[in-house]
Amino acid sequence: MIQRKTVSDNVFDFINILIMCAIILMTLYPLMYVIFASISDPSIVRLKGGILFWPVKPTIQGYRIIFNGTDVYTGYKNTAFYVVVGTSLNLFMTSIGAYTLSRKNVLLKKYFMLMIVITMYFSGGLIPSYFVVRDLNLINKRMALIIPGAVAAWNLIIMRTAFASIPEEMEQSARIDGANDFIILFRIILPLSTSIIAVMALFYGVGHWNSWFSAVLYLRDRDKFPIQLFLRELLILNATITEDTLITRDALNSMYTKMLVKYSITVVATLPILVIYPFLQKYFVKGVMIGSLKG
Amino acid sequence: MNENKNRSIGRTVLRDLVKNRYIYLMFLPVLAYYVIFCYWPMYGAVIAFKSFRPGLGIWESPWVGLKHFESFFSGRYFYRILRNTFMLSFYSLVFGFPAPIIFALLINELRHKIFKRTVQTITYIPHFISMVVICGMIIDATTSNGFISTMLSYFGFPPVNLLIKPEYFRSVYVVSGIWQGLGWGSIIYLAALTNIDSTLYEAATTDGATRFQQTIYISIPGIMPTITILLILSVGSLLSVGWEKVLLLYNPAIYETADVISTYVYRRGIVDADYSFSTAVGLFNSVVNFVLLFCANLLSRRVGETSLW
Fold it and tell me: Sorting pLDDT into bands at 50, 70 and 90, what band is B131?
């Protein structure tokens, strides 16, 4: 039956579209502002009072300063390390956990689940966790950012659901052929679950890219800092850019240049995510949906 | 008789362990992880009841019972941080919880597929930007010649630095939270909306219901289980305000409204190295959260059928 569109229907649709456009603008504007400001003359940007619709008096001075220093490279190198190694460990641990919890006829399964779910709601706290890391001699080591977060319970549950939905016949026919659980996991289950693994990799990966607090807590050496920490120094702590990382001191400690570099380094640190994101968006959304509908 | 029962239970467990030995073997790293990084700290939380000295270790440090809790409850800042934590959570809940729901309902009404997808794609972006960058942008926008002040000046207000006046912090926190979470938060609700039986809508149209009535009587009840569960989870974390953001945005000038339990724990524990005291505060936080979660779940089970467990 064709629904006749009333006037109020059309009015509503029109207003809805207006609202959506407004929301799109409000979402994008801060990002565009940062991008434009990063290539604009800072003295003029300052006068604009936060309103920029296009770059003014373009300059790449900010980027030049950043790429001439060492902080950005150190940060990127470390962040890349944390993302790659961290996500690999995440995937490994989450997979074996999800496999165990998704097998039928495993008696202790319920207790394992209970153990995991409890940790989702209750934890020892910041200080005891800090001391555990300290007692393991991980303070100021790169592994402190990788091992303590190895398993995210939420992701574990999502993956378990995905593994459990693989038809039992596959597992049974493999067992008849004499395969043990290791082979079943790696040769059968995992190849059939590439999309959920992709989702997990993205969730964990983005988490590592954006993480900063663990680094603040556990790292002391600057050469181990992820890029978020350098960002934090410039954006939040309003640190003065030090001599050994940039060109001339008086140019840099001047307020304008500092402002410009802030925008530029923000773009440099966030651009990879923004660029990759549109291609992988559907994976993220699928991941959330699986998690929400089953979990 | 009991002995026989126990023996046969033990035998069943043993049999299972042997039959599934590879599975259990595989699980060992995960088990070890949870024991070391989740349960050992829980045991370590016992230092909340001791006067912990790192040199002595957990065992040797002397017991002080509830001394730290007492000094926390009677301390100068107890009321302040409790109030701040609660208020921030509460405002986030009141304003930030409905926003993605309404947004999802609106998106659901969009006819044009491509426009709909564009809106979604764009509004998901803030979720992927790191907290450091977001707070950097907030700090930038709230300075006296930042975006917000400029906007305000068009309405005749004088320029103001929003992050040094305590009274503005809650608004900054909540509004930026909505900006961050609007798109991403709507995913779950949109998924739930697509699960509603479309014959319900058809029947409603035949009966002459307007779109608005359909929303109220079909859509919202249809996603009520989802809403309830998420609401329970939010209530359960009422006292664990997103401290990452607070930690990045606050400064001593606005501790009056910005200092929350978790930032207090961080300051007293890590910065001041007052380990036992800070652990006590953290423990208090955890316990209260758990109680809130439990109560919220109980309430929901009483009122409807959805619950977490």
Answer: very high
Contact residues, A window 17-46, toward B, CB-based 8 Å cutoff: 17, 19-20, 23-24, 26-28, 30-31, 33-34, 46
Nearest chain A residue to B21 by CA distance is A181
Alpha helices in chain A (DSSP H): 7-38, 42-47, 61-68, 71-102, 109-121, 126-135, 153-164, 168-176, 181-183, 190-192, 194-210, 213-218, 227-235, 249-253, 255-294
Q: What pLDDT is recorded for position B39?
A: 92
| ipTM metric | 0.83
pLDDT tens digits, residue range A236-249?
887 544 434 444 55
Q: 3-class DSSP state for residue A3?
A: coil
Q: How many other CB atoms sit within 10 Å of the CB of residue A50?
A: 20
Are B173 and B92 a contacting pair, CB within 8 Å? yes
Answer yes or no: are the C-beta atoms of B218 and B260 closer than 8 Å. no
Contact A119, B34 (CB under 8 A): yes
Alpha helices in chain B (DSSP H): 2-19, 21-34, 40-44, 57-60, 67-73, 78-91, 98-108, 113-128, 131-141, 147-154, 169-194, 198-206, 211-214, 220-236, 243-249, 255-258, 261-266, 275-303
Kindly give, in sequence order, each residue whose CB lies less than 8 Å from that of residue B297, ignoring residues fewer than 6 positions away.
B232, B236, B307, B308, B309
pLDDT (tens digit per residue) in B50-93: 888 877 777 778 888 888 888 899 888 899 988 988 888 889 88
Cβ-based contacts under 8 A for chains A and B? 256
- The full DSSP string for A186-216 is IIIIHHHTHHHHHHHHHHHHHHHHH--HHHH
Residues in CB range of A212: below 8 A, 6 or more apart: A226, A228, A229, A231, A232, B130, B131, B132, B244
The 10s digit of each residue's pLDDT in A114-126 is: 898 888 878 888 8
Q: Which residues of A touch B102 (CB under 8 A)?
A: none
Which of A159-173, A263-277, B105-119, B122-136 shows the lowest per-residue confidence on average (mean pLDDT)?
Answer: A159-173
Calculate ∠ Cα B174-B180-B183, nearest 5°. 120
- The identity of residue A240, as a single letter, is T
